[in-house]
Each structure stands twice: as structure tokens, then as C-alpha cells.
Specification:
383 residues; alpha/beta; Rossmann fold; Dehydroquinate synthase-like, alpha domain; 6-stranded parallel sheet; two-stranded antiparallel ribbon; 55% helix; 12% strand; binds zinc ion
Length: 383
């Protein structure tokens, strides 16, 4: 199989601006020595009720025993019962950081916990340390914090982790649906890369070959090991988390998210904001991205085979070729099914009305990105 970044940990942690990146069994054991070496004496652990029971509590005990003033903030869920990265969560954590005069924050959890911690640590001017509890998203080592501000999803430039401790023993305990979500976030790279190439060809968007290469390599590794990922084996979760981190490194290298986030992410963000508006419980980010990828491929393939279907672009020939290289909708859905994730909007619980509306409006979610969906919608008067 392709050799991913874990064979080049020094290089990848340098790229990501990290002191270290440990992906191994019992990586958590390395956290205490790291904190000791840094000379930190006051630490906040950010967790939610689930991740506290998984790892936060144990960590708190270890730190306290080592004579470090440690405190665990359990981020409270919103009125729907979801822990979300919104202003309330950030303030909850920030107050504890200020109270303890913490020198660093350890994020113990998935993407949301990391986004809350990332922005809080950035605001407080202290480092944050990443302890992922499930391989769910490629945003762990991101610098941008997607936050919900008064219900709108915005991404604010913040900071990446100063160190990552990816404990494979912990990751193997992750529920199958979280592993499937991480796989869905990776599957989305099919359409994000397509939209990126399109934006470069048609709209002079910036491009970096090595970023595209790292992203393709990460996607490929997940496809090659889909059975292991589906089974949630040690090797499966290792391949998946490494691919997610590699996609994150690729974004850091480029300085923007084009490689990892295209129209499929815009659909997913649109659905997320709608659910906030109507006060419904949130769906997993990667579960939405995987299904949205299948929906975008369905639309793009339809346009590619229609007579004149791509006439709204400057170079339909090149675009048709790019679209033809992608697997078809059914292949995407069967891969999602194989890992045990939702494969259709019905299984995800997204109504047809919301799907159709998002296909017409989701390009407004990221006004600065030129995707095929944007060009298509603008050409049919939905700009
Ligand atoms: Zn994503």
C-alpha cells in the first residue's frame, strides 16, 4: 500500500507546526512526559461527558498524581443534547482557562471538541494539545476553527495543536458510526478535488500539486484498506486516522481548504445550519459529507452525459474528462454501506425538500469558492 505520512512523522509534524505527532498503541502514556518536558504546571482538559469517561478522567487523575494542577471542563450540550462548537461552549471553556490560569489545554474528543478548544486556546494565547478519541474528521490538525455563531457556520483562523497523541487502543473503542463518518469525510475528497481542479481551470484559483498528491494518496489508502476500516481493526483505524491527518497536513501546506472541502462540504454545512435553525439533533459531519459526495457525483455525472449539459463552463471537454474519472454514485454509496455508514439522504434522514434546496443554495455557504455547483447554479439564474 501507499506509504503515508506516518513514515515521515518528523516532516509532517514540522509541516503542521507541531512539536510531535504520536500515532501508536497507548500513545496517551506519552502525554505526561511531554507536559513535564514543557514545564507546564496548570492544565485544563476539555472533554464532553462521553470522552471524559473514555479518557479525560484517566488523564485528569494521572496529571493530578504527577503534581500538576489539572481541571477537566465537561462541555455542556445545547438544548437539543448536542455538544456544539458555538459561542456558549467557547466561553464555558475560556472561563475555566482564565480561572485556573492554565498554561495549555488538552482536547480530548472528536472534531467539535477540538474546534472549541482550538478557538479557546487561540483566544487565551496558550497552546492546545490534541487527543482524538475517534477517527471522525480531517480537521484535528487544522488551524481554522469552524464555529457556529448565532446559528451561522463560519470558519475563523485560529491555531493548530502543538502536539498530537493518537492512541490506537482508544480509537479501536470508537463506535462503528464514528469510524464510518471519518471514512465519509475521506470519500468526500473525490468531489473536493474535482471542484478544486475545476476552480483552477475555470477561475484561476491557486493550486499546489503536492497538496493534491497528499490528499489523493490519503484517499487511496482508505480505499485499499476499506475492509479493515469496516471491521474497525487496529490497522483499519490506523490507516483512517493517518489519512485524515494527512489530509489536514495537505490543507496546512496549501494554507486553504480547497483540497479537502468542495461542494459536498457546502451541502453538509447547509444541512447543519438548517438543523440548528429548526432545533434538530445534529448528524455526524463525515456521515453528511459521504452522502453529499454521492449526491454531487450524481449531479455532475448527469450533467456530463447530457447533451450540452456542461455548456455553462469555458472548457466542457476537460471537465467531462475529469468527471468521467470519478467512480459513479453507486460505487460511492456501496463503499459507505460497506463501512456501515448511511449511504443515502433517506438513511441520513435528510428530506428531499432540504436536499433540493441545498443543491440550489449551498454555494452561498462559501462565497469565496468557485465550484462546479456554483457555476451551474449561476448559469441557471440561482447566483
Ligand atoms: Zn470534513
Amino acid at each position: 500500500m501507499a506509504s503515508l505520512l506516518w513514515n515521515r512523522e518528523t516532516e509532517s509534524s514540522r509541516l503542521a507546526g507541531m512539536d510531535c505527532l504520536h500515532i501508536e498503541d497507548d500513545a496517551l502514556m506519552r502525554l505526561l512526559p511531554y507536559i513535564g518536558n514543557k514545564g507546564y504546571t496548570k492544565i485544563i482538559i476539555a472533554a464532553d461527558a462521553i470522552t471524559s469517561a473514555l479518557a479525560g478522567n484517566v488523564l485528569l487523575e494521572k496529571l493530578s498524581k504527577a503534581g500538576i494542577a489539572a481541571y477537566e471542563t465537561i462541555i455542556k450540550p445545547n438544548s437539543c443534547g448536542d455538544v456544539v462548537a458555538d459561542e456558549a461552549s467557547v466561553i464555558q471553556l475560556l472561563l475555566d482557562v482564565q480561572q485556573l490560569e492554565a498554561e495549555a489545554v488538552v482536547a480530548v474528543g472528536t472534531g467539535t471538541l477540538h474546534d472549541i478548544t482550538r478557538y479557546t486556546a487561540y483566544t487565551a494565547g496558550i497552546p492546545f494539545i490534541s487527543v482524538p478519541t475517534a477517527p471522525t474528521v480531517d480537521g484535528f490538525n487544522s488551524k481554522g476553527a469552524p464555529l457556529l455563531l448565532r446559528g451561522d457556520k463560519i470558519t475563523i483562523a485560529a491555531k493548530g495543536p502543538s502536539a498530537m497523541f493518537v492512541d490506537l487502543t482508544l480509537l479501536q473503542q470508537a463506535p462503528a458510526q464514528l469510524i464510518a463518518a471519518g471514512f465519509g469525510d475521506m470519500i468526500g475528497k473525490y468531489t473536493s478535488l474535482l471542484d478544486w481542479h475545476f476552480g483552477v481551470n475555470e477561475h484561476n484559483e491557486p493550486f499546489l500539486q503536492s497538496t493534491a498528491d497528499l490528499t489523493i494518496e490519503a484517499l487511496q489508502a482508505c480505499l485499499e484498506r476499506v475492509q479493515d476500516i469496516a471491521a474497525g481493526t487496529r490497522d483499519g483505524v490506523k490507516v483512517l486516522i493517518e489519512a485524515l491527518i494527512q489530509s489536514g497536513v495537505a490543507m496546512l501546506q496549501f494554507g486553504q481548504s480547497h483540497s479537502a472541502s468542495g461542494s459536498e462540504h457546502h451541502l453538509s454545512h447547509y444541512w447543519e445550519m438548517e438543523y440548528i435553525r429548526i432545533n434538530r439533533r445534529q448528524l455526524l459531519h463525515g456521515a453528511k459529507v459521504g452522502v453529499a459526495c454521492a449526491e454531487m457525483i450524481k449531479l455532475y455525472k448527469q450533467l456530463a452525459v447530457q447533451d450540452g449539459g456542461l455548456d455553462f463552463v469555458r472548457d466542457p471537454h476537460t471537465l467531462r474528462k475529469l468527471i468521467e474519472q470519478l467512480p459513479d454514485e453507486d460505487e460511492i454509496r456501496s463503499l459507505l454501506k460497506q463501512v456501515g455508514g448511511p449511504a443515502s439522504v433517506e438513511e441520513l434522514g435528510i428530506s428531499d425538500e432540504l436536499l433540493q434546496r441545498s443543491l440550489r443554495e449551498a454555494h452561498h455557504v462559501r462565497p469565496n469558492r468557485y465550484t462546479i455547483l456554483r457555476a451551474y447554479n449561476e448559469a441557471r439564474g440561482l447566483g
